[in-house]
Amino acid sequence: GQNIDQPTEMTATEGAIVQINCTYQTSGFNGLFWYQQHAGEAPTFLSYNVLDGLEEKGRFSSFLSRSKGYSYLLLKELQMKDSASYLCAVFQAGTALIFGKGTTLSVSS
Amino acid sequence: DAEITQSPRHKITETGRQVTLACHQTWNHNNMFWYRQDLGHGLRLIHYSYGVQDTNKGEVSDGYSVSRSNTEDLPLTLESAASSQTSVYFCASAPDRAQETQYFGPGTRLLVL
User: Fold this and answer.
1) pLDDT tens figures, A53-73
2) Residues B18-35: pLDDT tens digits?
3) Fewest beta carbons within 10 Å, which of A50, A80, A99, B11?
4) Which residues lie below 8 Å from residue A2, measured CB to CB, with a gap of 6+?
C-alpha cells in the first residue's frame, strides 16, 4: 500500500519563501514528483527527485530524503501567480504515479 | 505541436447510462493513465496502460473500463454511470514507465444526475 501526506492549506505573502512538506510510505519507491495545479486547470510538472538531495530550478527547489520518506518543495520570491495547489506524487514501481491530496497555497500581497 | 486532448470537456448524463470519455495523444507515448479528481481526495488512479493491448486497474477502477487498441488513444468507459462518478477526469501520458514526466490533458467535467 501507499500513504502520502501533505498539508491541506498554506498561506504566504508576496516575496516570501514557503516550504511545502510531503511524507510518504510506499513499496517499491521509484521517484518523487511535484506538480502545480491552478484552479480549473490540469496539473503541470514542476520537479522530479529520485536521489537524495536538492534539485533547484529557478525559484523552485525540491528536496528528497529516501531514508526518511520525506520531500519538500521550496518556493522563493513568491508571486501572486504561485497561488495554486501543489501535488506531491510518488512513482511506485510496477504501477504508476500515486498522488497526495495536494496543498492549496494562497499568496497575498 | 504534439499534445494530449480530451473530449468532451463537459458532460451531463443520467444514472445508468453508459458514458465514454476520449483521450488522444500525439506524442506516441506508450504509457497512458486515467485519474479522477474530487475535493478531499486529490487525484486518484482509475486505470493505466503501458502499451497497446495492455490495461491495468488502479485504486478506484470499479465501474470503469478501458481499452488500448492503438498507441494514441485510451478511452474510458463508465459502464452504468452513478452519481458517485460525478468528478473531473484527467487523462495523462508518459513516454516510459519510470522517471518520466506525465503530461496531463485539460480534463473532462462529468455530472451524473
Assistant:
1) 999 999 999 999 999 999 999
2) 999 999 999 899 999 999
3) A80
4) A24, A25, A26, A27, A90, A92, A98
